[in-house]
Amino acid sequence: MAPPLLSLQGITLTLGGKPLLEGADLSVSPGERLCLVGRNGSGKSTLLKIAAGQIEADGGVRFLQPDAHLRYLPQEPDFSGFPTALGYVEAGLGPNDDHYRALRLLNDLGLSGEEDPKRLSGGEGRRIALARVLAPEPDILLLDEPTNHLDLPAIEWLEGELRGLRSALVIISHDRRFLQNLSRKTVWLDRGQTRQLDRGFAEFEAWRDLLLEEEEQQQHKLERRIAMEEDWLRYGVTARRKRNQKRLARLHTLRKEHREHQGPAGDVKLVAAEGKQSGTLVIEAKGLSKSFGERAIVKDFSTRVLRGDRLAVVGANGTGKTTLISLLTGSLAPDSGSLRLGANLEMATLDQKRTSLSPQTTLKDALTGGGSDYVEVNGERKHVIGYMKDFLFGPEQARTPIERLSGGERGRLMLARALSRTSNLLVLDEPTNDLDLETLDLLQEMLSDYPGTLILVSHDRDFLDRVASSVLVSEGQGRWVEYAGGYSDMVRQRGAGVEATSSSAPAEKKKREVAPPATAEAKKKLSFKEKHALETLPKRMEELRQLQARLQTVLADHELYNRDPAKFAAASAAFAKAEADLVQAEEEWLALEILREEIEG
């Protein structure tokens, strides 16, 4: 097996007097597909920064192969000093990197390269940052929340792009489907230490639950041993003092071990405040239309939402999802059509941008409204500190301004506010943003048990599959169509996922577009090298396809991993390389064929 390109051993780091990392390890081999998972605040991003060489650990060893090229995607890239998007992307290229690839990636992501990075939205900024790290095709790619701010077409495009790379990947993400589709190894960062599963994320949660169950059993055994030793201390024989002193010392050791044991982080307690039962009919829309200027956002749209429905709204950024929800809830007047809302409706909303509060508002005031120490949930007064604990906030954070909270903490705060309001209609615009996987699980369970009606917008495919009972999809030009079931059900019925818009997402690609090596006008005929490549590339492509087929046969053996892990890893890496080589060969052949046809007229 090839030596690792990057290795972290025994990494320790203390922040604010509290140990964050206590002996964390990470090893990345060529072509490896690895995901790094853990609760919000567990230190995943910090460990990735140490791996990238951005910050220095207090202790431990970081080793990077001298000839290995590494690129790191931070959660919040710094665009200062770059007048254009293309300039920012090209600044990440080396002398031998392909500058055309940088522009091609930007075009695929729906950008021209002339944009001013300081004036872009969060989604556009994320696309530019992705283009910068993908363009050099490095040996190691460290990605911290690469799907943040991306819509569904961009996420699915990114998956395809990463599959075709030869680079080793280390990914932090809260998007389950994204991790399931790309990872082959999982590293779990838990209470400052790492544990490794040599399988993809799809098998992680069952493995994690088994480890936590075994840990709980060990703690139970330890408690029983302490109880037995304390019983002996009280009632045991007092003879043979030396032996008794040793036993007493062992009891002190057991007590210390039990006292210092850190259990897993607590779970968020999500309970929605329930209002009176609404009427059977919640929303009835007939012929709703809304345009801004000449652009139609919603055109002749009709639907009926009944009590208990879970309606998801999906589409590329810029298609008007939030506008449609505003029309359905009556907060925005349509240009034409009629809307009827059911009886006894009590609506609670979660704002997509999380901007409904001043950054200087403290956590306590955000939950209570200010001037009180209590929150009213389901008609009962609850002390704000207790309610904060339900959402994993410590008492010391009560006076913390919102601007000093992390993205995950802001997400939990806005959920806490929305769920404390009495409602029988929940409207959630991107509720999964910045939430860790465990909190997503609990949110899904809460929404499943919620007796009222739910309308939500989300780009999380797995979450949509688990929660939605029907999906509304933008078909373009203001047309919206409803499909029964979750996201995967919609894709099967529709025959395709969510398409990109021309302005907001990667261009739809029926086939990969590549620039010819030179224009036909500049050349009278193909060079000898180009002719030779045109003649030999088809044979090369067929050889690569045959190699892929042989490797696929090897990997189809379900027992191979258990029997010979090294052979499994080598076959997986070889398959990934063959796939990337085939894509490159096909692109080169296509470019030369286009040039030949243009020259021959």
What does this protein structure show overall?
- This protein is of the alpha/beta class.
- It folds into three domains: 6-69 and 138-206, 3-Layer(aba) Sandwich (Rossmann fold); 281-494, P-loop containing nucleotide triphosphate hydrolases (Rossmann fold, 3-Layer(aba) Sandwich); 520-600, Valyl-tRNA synthetase, C-terminal domain (Helix Hairpins, Orthogonal Bundle).
- The chain contains 18 helices and 20 strands.
- The protein has helices at 44-52, 85-90, 99-108, 122-134, 152-163, 176-182, 204-235, 241-260, 321-328, 363-368, 384-390, 407-420, 437-449, 461-467, 487-494, 528-555, 560-563, 565-600, and strands at residues 6-15, 18-28, 33-37, 59-64, 70-73, 140-144, 168-172, 185-190, 193-197, 281-292, 295-306, 310-314, 336-341, 347-350, 374-377, 380-383, 425-429, 453-457, 470-476, 479-484.
- Strands 5-6-7-3-8-9 form a six-stranded mixed β-sheet, sandwiched between helices. Strands 14-17-18-12-19-20 form a six-stranded mixed β-sheet, sandwiched between helices. Strands 2-1-4 form a three-stranded antiparallel β-sheet, covered by helices on one side.
- Strand 19 (470-476) and strand 20 (479-484) form a beta hairpin.
- The longest helix has 36 residues, at 565-600.
- The radius of gyration is 28 Å and the shape is globular.
- It starts with 5 loop residues before the first strand and ends with a helix.
- The model is unreliable at 238-243 and 502-522 (pLDDT under 50).
